[in-house]
């Protein structure tokens, strides 16, 4: 597990620093376009205290797309209609209440961070779940709810009347996922500060995939992918960054295991 959740470099501190234990877990629904053409149309969040496991302070707001047309596919997913957005505040006003934290988490943090542009530390629950639950068959949010599985009973009242892909619904599920992920990974850490440092490092790295998403070994656990195929991935130009990172990671581990096997002392002879 330590190689899946490695220690992060820690700068020496003259005075002890008490880590922030409350994470704002946030989700964003958009008009469904590329970043430069997109518009946020809904934000939802809850706060999670990693020290106690308490999930609280649910917030949600629609936001005016500012004339950006909603992609039909995105509308089918989140089911937010033009009528629902009538009278919604502009994005700059809608996002303001969510900006009071400095520690955020989201299921695909790079997406939400790029749309919301909120300053602070961001944790990616997708990348963390890949480290905590590599054997789960899929790592989309609702797949993790089903296959980990996640107990949503304490957030059920706030889920009532909502559905997946509404911002608050997904934020609540993501908070439960982060709580469960922390419970899985925290025992490997010295303390909460160590966990947060490791989680930030993992969140800033490419995803360490559990299975390849393409090619002749699509869907096969990485441990079962032949070494020569991983070597091909590393050599291939313009390779997907997550696949490249994953291939290099596993090739290094396989090489280290071979070195360790060679260096292992021979059994004593009688």
TrEMBL record:
Q: Which GO terms describe its cellular component?
A: cytosol
Alphabetically list the UniProt keywords: Hydrolase
Its lineage reads: Bacteria, Pseudomonadati, Pseudomonadota, Alphaproteobacteria, Hyphomicrobiales
Question: EC?
Answer: 3.1.11.-
Q: Which residues form the Exonuclease domain?
A: 22-187
- Pfam families membership: RNase_T
Question: What is the species listed in this Swiss-Prot or TrEMBL entry?
Answer: Aureimonas pseudogalii
* Name listed for the protein in its UniProt record: Exodeoxyribonuclease X
Q: Which SMART domains does the entry mention?
A: EXOIII
Residue stretches spanning the membrane: none
UniProt GO MF annotations:
3'-5' exonuclease activity; nucleic acid binding
Top-level lineage group: Bacteria
The alphabetized list of GO BP terms reads: DNA replication proofreading
Provide the top EC class.
hydrolase
